[in-house]
Design goal:
Blueprint lengths: L19 H8 L2 E3 L4 H11 L3 E5 L5 E6 H8 L10 H5 L9
Parallel strand pairs: 1-2
Antiparallel strand pairs: 2-3
Helix pairs in contact: 2-3
C-alpha cells in the first residue's frame, strides 16, 4: 500500500510567509514514486487536484506530475497496469516547490 500525505489548512489563512511544508502542500498531495499511474490518477481525482508531488524512497521530493501527463501515459499503447510513476518520470534531482 502506498501512503499519501495530505494536510488541510483553514480557509481564512491569509497570504503570509509559508513554511516548506505549506509550499509543498500548495504544489499538490505527496505520493511515492512506486505508486502506479492508475492509482496516482485516482489520488488526483479524490484530492481534486491536477498535480502530485512525487517523493522517492528517501522521502526526497523529486518531481511533480500533472494529470495531463499521466493521462497521456495511460492512453499510450505501451501502458500496462504495472507502470509506476518512477518509470514515467525518469531520474530527477530533488526540487523545491513554488
Amino acid at each position: 500500500m502506498t501512503l499519501v500525505q495530505t494536510q488541510t489548512r483553514p480557509a481564512d489563512a491569509g497570504p503570509t510567509h509559508r513554511t516548506a511544508v505549506e509550499a509543498m502542500d500548495a504544489a499538490g498531495p505527496q505520493v511515492w514514486d512506486d505508486m502506479s499511474v492508475e492509482v496516482a490518477l485516482s489520488v488526483m481525482a479524490a484530492a481534486r487536484t491536477g498535480r502530485l508531488v512525487v517523493c522517492d524512497q528517501d522521502s526526497q521530493c523529486t518531481a511533480q506530475v500533472t494529470q495531463r501527463e499521466l493521462t497521456a501515459v495511460r492512453n499510450s499503447s505501451a501502458y500496462t497496469d504495472r507502470v509506476r510513476l518512477r518509470d514515467v518520470l525518469g531520474v530527477h534531482a530533488p526540487f523545491a516547490a513554488p
